Amino acid sequence: MNITVKFFASLREQTGKSDASISYAEPISVLDAWKQASGMQSMPENTLCAINMEYVNHSTLLSDGDEVAFFPPVTGG
Amino acid sequence: MNITVKFFASLREQTGKSDASISYAEPISVLDAWKQASGMQSMPENTLCAINMEYVNHSTLLSDGDEVAFFPPVTGG
Amino acid sequence: MIELRTTEFDPLDELAIYQKRLAAGKYGACCNFIGSMRDFNEGDEVSKMTLEHYPGMTEKFLQTICDEANEKWPLLDCLIIHRTGDINPNDSIVLTAAWSAHRDASFAACRYLIEELKHRAPFWKKENTGQGERWVSENTKAED
Amino acid sequence: MIELRTTEFDPLDELAIYQKRLAAGKYGACCNFIGSMRDFNEGDEVSKMTLEHYPGMTEKFLQTICDEANEKWPLLDCLIIHRTGDINPNDSIVLTAAWSAHRDASFAACRYLIEELKHRAPFWKKENTGQGERWVSENTKAED
Fold first, then answer.
1. For chain B, which domains are there?
2. Which end of chain D is more exposed for a tag (fewer CB within 10 A), N or C?
3. What domains lie within chain C, and their CATH numbers?
4. pTM, to two decimals
5. C31 touches chain D (CB under 8 A)
């Protein structure tokens, strides 16, 4: 199972990366993907997550080929 | 005591006049001014009144030199 | 600022011109509302309209509304422009605008300006429909 | 319609151009909101700003907001334009607009567009102040 991980804004700076690819044999959650891709960093409490550009929560399970994104509270407009 | 009376919109058409001058010896109310200036026509229920360009109610008393105006509900904007 | 116009005006041009007077970088929010003449009302086609007002009182009243908005919210400025006289479909009738640092004040003030204008400012519309002329009887409460 | 812009845009010009697409005489109300960059925030001078977004998701999300507004209110159309990249004080950041027959729908929809955008659309602001760069931490609830 291959997953693409994206980090935006302050989370990109915190993790030091904008994109990562991870592989797993067993189904994993969004939170598991964070741990693996960030190198076991702690996830800031208010982190938002999206799978394939739709908001999800931290416990949602990922499927092969998914793009999972992590970002801080939004501040547009 | 001399008073200028103005009618606007449908009330101008109903009374057939836009301006009128009336004279009185005793203090009169806005409603009295309507009766006199309109030739005793009945005042439509939702008529708005202003003295010297400030909204007043029908029982407000007029002073010498006042301009009293009668108009229907407003429909601007 | 408030203004009455006897001829057609372009509300977006007016906003652009007026906004140049304001200090650049100080307002973060501008909410504005443009009311224009539809070619239908209450089921009938409307080919023309005339807007009567009370010279003197109308201007004074629009200024009062602006003053009230400035007291109620922390605004940098507000603007009302309103047409009078003969109006054709698609012409702009009214522009209300409010500038502030944050969006909440600009929305609330812009809404206040148009609601107060619609319910209290001395203007009267007469529509010309296929069935002849008719006075518009009353503005609706916050839904027209 | 929704659009992202990487360079400066004039929201009033955009409104004028976009509005020409709409059927003349059918809308009576246009409420729009323009958010622009102030040169101060939370007590500090801000000399520059960078707006990051999530390419793909941001556009999709703005379209979702427009679709939701169209479902909730009887609109003729709505429009969102948002800047990305490097932004200078007084530049326009966002335009939201809604056209309808009556004013209530246009106000409610315009407000909905900007509130949803501010709270859910993936954009992130980084400010450059005299003290260096900082990420804006969170948009306020309907008051920013």
1. 2-71 (3.10.20.30)
2. N
3. 2-136 (3.90.1170.40)
4. 0.94
5. yes
